[in-house]
Amino acid sequence: MSDALRDAVQRYTQEHANADGIAGTPVRGLFLVRGFSPGELEHAIASPLVCLVLQGSKRVTIGDRDFSFSAGDSMIVTANVPTVSRISEATITRPYLALALDLDPAVITDLDVAMSMAGSPQEPVGINVDEELRNAMFRLVRLLGQPQSLSVLHKQLVREIHYWLLLGDQGKAIRRLGLPDGQVRRIARAVAILRKDYARPLPIERLAKAAGMSRSAFHKHFRAVTSLSPLQFQKQLRLIEARRLMLSQGKTSSRVAFEVGYASVSQFTREYARMYGRPPVRDRNTTVT
């Protein structure tokens, strides 16, 4: 099944991947990835997701912990957290291939209730969960070439994938994403505002209100979930978007500084260099050339 899934992802990315090697799909939250060579460090703030590496390998730093994922490994992120990653093994003949699917809290909540009512065990007995998960992913990817069938069947396949994830090793952490009044879900409401309005000043009171917390409790729980303060989180979002605009659209550093919400180009330059290791102009020129 792993070979069939890998081949299906390779075929789809050959036709649909963009210049960055990412192939979006009609299924919300599903992305297929291809890379032909080891790359530079990529900074991102990951949403809760599952990522399955099918070929090649990737190194990922989450907080102060380093991980290496090779073919057959899966990475599950259960909170909005900053990541630094790079493809570490890929060639023209054997490109890095991966599948990523955002985790849906509404689906998790619904499944958790259904599993409780059915008396389903939270730990599987006599079931190869990994094999079942890959099988469901393969059936979903295969349907990408059948648009009419995909429109009818994709929701139940996404639901099935979530089901097998809930029965896996990370099931307990994933289940917390679905708790309506849980800290992760409440902080996620504030994160959604930060992602949408990162370029605007955002009073902490607005974010705390969205999370249903006092200002002090919000600060405490936001850092516990994301490892960053709200201001640091917003700053990283701005810098990540600024780099994307410079490298993909060729915009100048001064222009993107204002577009992502900085009032001072010099402050933008300092903070960009601190995060990426070199000032924006040099980073753009070096990467493009």
UniProtKB/TrEMBL annotation:
<dbReference type="InterPro" id="IPR010916">
    <property type="entry name" value="TonB_box_CS"/>
</dbReference>
<dbReference type="InterPro" id="IPR009057">
    <property type="entry name" value="Homeodomain-like_sf"/>
</dbReference>
<dbReference type="Pfam" id="PF12833">
    <property type="entry name" value="HTH_18"/>
</dbReference>
<protein>
    <submittedName>
        <fullName>AraC-type transcriptional regulator domain protein</fullName>
    </submittedName>
</protein>
<dbReference type="GO" id="GO:0043565">
    <property type="term" value="F:sequence-specific DNA binding"/>
</dbReference>
<dbReference type="Pfam" id="PF06719">
    <property type="entry name" value="AraC_N"/>
</dbReference>
<dbReference type="InterPro" id="IPR018060">
    <property type="entry name" value="HTH_AraC"/>
</dbReference>
<keyword id="KW-0804">Transcription</keyword>
<dbReference type="InterPro" id="IPR011051">
    <property type="entry name" value="RmlC_Cupin_sf"/>
</dbReference>
<dbReference type="InterPro" id="IPR009594">
    <property type="entry name" value="Tscrpt_reg_HTH_AraC_N"/>
</dbReference>
<keyword id="KW-0805">Transcription regulation</keyword>
<dbReference type="GO" id="GO:0003700">
    <property type="term" value="F:DNA-binding transcription factor activity"/>
</dbReference>
<feature type="domain" description="HTH araC/xylS-type">
    <location>
        <begin position="188"/>
        <end position="286"/>
    </location>
</feature>
